[in-house]
Amino acid sequence: MSLLKTKLIPSVFRIIGLLMQGSLKKTKDSFHGPLEVIFSSPSIKFYAKRKKTIDEKIKGIQITYLFRESDSYFLLYNNVFYAIDSRKDLRKIFPDLRKDIKKESKENEKKFNEDDEGLYLYLIHFIAFKLNTNNA
Fold first, then answer.
1. pLDDT at 53
2. Which of 7, 18, 41, 75 can bridge 128 by disulfide, Cβ–Cβ 3.0-4.6 Å?
3. Which residue ranges of the chain lie beneath pLDDT 70?
4. pTM, two decimal places
């Protein structure tokens, strides 16, 4: 999260407001838009959707913009997209590996403190390895 404070001249304020009007609209998160491939194997693909929102606060002639970044994660498995919001989602998608995923998750929880993407990526590598060794 970053913060930008700017003082504007009133005559310029209206022009900037008109120019930025289209880019400040908030959209609901969905599968539409660019997805970044984070991990790819023959059986699993893991994607991230990077989203940035801008909030503006006007106080007198001062305008403050607050930039927020939020990521959404998706998993493609057996030609079905799954939204990944927590580690529990991975256990639901792979019920046969539920205990293994829970164990790996707990053992590496401190290693990936506050890094959801890192933990998801680690667990997906683990799941892909397990799926490949079980199918061999």
1. 85
2. 41
3. 1-33, 135-136
4. 0.66
Tokens of 92: 């639901």
* Helices 116-135, 98-107: crossing angle, 10 deg rounding: 140
In whole angstroms, what is the distance from residue 11 CA to residue 119 CA? Answer: 49
What is the per-residue pLDDT for 92? 94
> Domain map of the chain by residue range?
2-135
Say how far apart CA 91 and CA 103 lie, in whole Å.
11
Q: How far apart are CA 72 and CA 51, in angstroms?
A: 8
Distance CA 129, CA 43 (A): 10
- Give the separation between CA 77 and CA 6, rounded to whole angstroms: 46
Whole-number Å distance between alpha carbons of 70 and 51: 5
**Per-residue model confidence as pLDDT tens digits over 27-66:** 344 456 688 899 999 889 999 998 888 888 888 888 888 8
- The residue with tokens 């984070």 is 38
- DSSP E strand boundaries for the chain: 2-7, 36-40, 44-59, 62-77, 80-84
Tokens of 115: 């890094």
